[in-house]
Amino acid sequence: MPNLPVYDQDYLWQSLSSRFFDVAATVGDCIAIALRDTPGTSYDAKMRVCYPNFGGLAWDDCDCGGVLQVSMGRRTSTVNFPQELSEIGANRPTACGAGSPMQDFTVEFIRCWPGPDNRGRPPSCHTMVEATRKLDADITAIRKAMYDCLCEQKQLRHIDDYVIRASQPAGPEGSCAGWTTNFSVSVVTLG
Question: Against a cut of 0.90, is the pTM above it?
Fold first, then answer.
């Protein structure tokens, strides 16, 4: 293990909240920039961004430019990332038994999805395939941006480690569809 810089223990715990807050904001910025170049992004429709946030994305309004949210989820401890301390029991020695803080995050991105026209006719197959192609490009850009951003955060030692989990389709619900991707990070604290 590399030699870690010496930090004041009180600083590490007091700044923990802002460190996780910064991770959410940085990852959100990376994704928002990457999504500018996807086929579904129209320069006349502005993407709405909301991060860091708490809880799930409200589906009551779907902007065609897209809605991006990075939410902070569960916070726990780990000595064997990404396993929680409670999953591996108290048999592993840690300084004061606390382990390293670990935070879960959820990235949600939705955009307009084709629906019936003003006469109630369903969208054409071509329209649906084109919308799917755009969402596929979105998740490719989102996952690459997450990987690049979190890898850089790890290299800069802003985080200790990260894991990006599987992306799941979100919707379609009403006139919205998109993706949800969860990730977790751990940060080093001195116990």
Answer: no
